[in-house]
Amino acid sequence: MTTSRQIYLYLAPALLMTVVFFVFPLIFVLFVGLRDWDGIGAMTYVGLDNFRSLFADPAFKTAVVNTVYWILAGIFIHTPLGLLLALILFKKPAGWKWLRTIFFLPNVISTTALAFLWYFVLHVSLGLVNNGLKAIGLGSLARGWLSDPSTALYANMVPFVLYVGFTMVIFLTQMSTISPELYEAAEIDGATGWQKDRYITIPLVKNAVGINIVFNTAFCLRMFEYPLLMTGGGPADSTLNLSLYMYRAMVTANQYGVSMAAGLVTVAIGAVAMLLVFAFIRVWDRKR
Q1: Which is it for strands 35-36 and 44-45: parallel, antiparallel or unpaired?
Q2: Does pLDDT of 242 surpass 90?
Q3: Residue 20 lies in a domain
Q4: pLDDT tens across 31-79, in order?
Q5: What is the DSSP-derived secondary structure letter of residue 106?
Q6: Is the pTM of this model over 0.70?
Q7: Residue 227 sits in a domain of what CATH number?
Q8: CB-based contacts of 89: which residues, under 8 Å, 6+ apart?
Q9: Which residues constitute the domain of residue 115?
């Protein structure tokens, strides 16, 4: 058996899974997205009418903007925070193994459980945040974090930070492959800890940066539990995102065609985001 045949043989299971669980469903989503269907009766071909309905719906526009906010939080807050934690733990401070476990622990806890936990933490009267502010004399800052349209979306994003442990582990894994000789040479040249991080560690984990941005973008695109359980998409659709919009269109309004059309838009946004990430990595490589 030739080497190329061996490669295709090893790739066959992954390719089969991709076709069965992604390509076929995507084709079905496109098929339904071009039709009017309530999930029970016969389908009626309507062409691009579902997409026209989407872009004429103010709630959909809000969902797109909120989803973009989620993605930006994943890229510019979650990923750098994971990198910062990894840089600290990579130096193996006292108790670093315990800290690594603690930071990763939320990733094995149900998202639903965390959503309910933070719902009560941010509750207007029972929540720890408002009661804590009152206890230290800052009661004037207490507010309905989940019922105020100006803060509800950001309050929804707070639990997302708990998943930073997954990002941290990917960075730590990449850092473990860096040769210690590079740091020894830098120390001989008088480099400080920050200089070693800036000129050795961070440039050499650029692949992990790209991977984490892709993972966090994908996670934010399919974010569902927090806006559903903490605010239900409210108040006034201020926390509505694309996942919840699709759920509403399908389950509440029985508009399966509209829901599938929204799903295709979500896939398109994800594809554009991934292309931008890969373009950023290529530019970074050329500059290095």
Answers
A1: antiparallel
A2: yes
A3: no
A4: 999 999 988 888 999 989 999 999 999 999 999 999 999 999 999 999 9
A5: G
A6: yes
A7: 1.10.3720.10
A8: 96, 99, 100, 168, 172
A9: 45-287
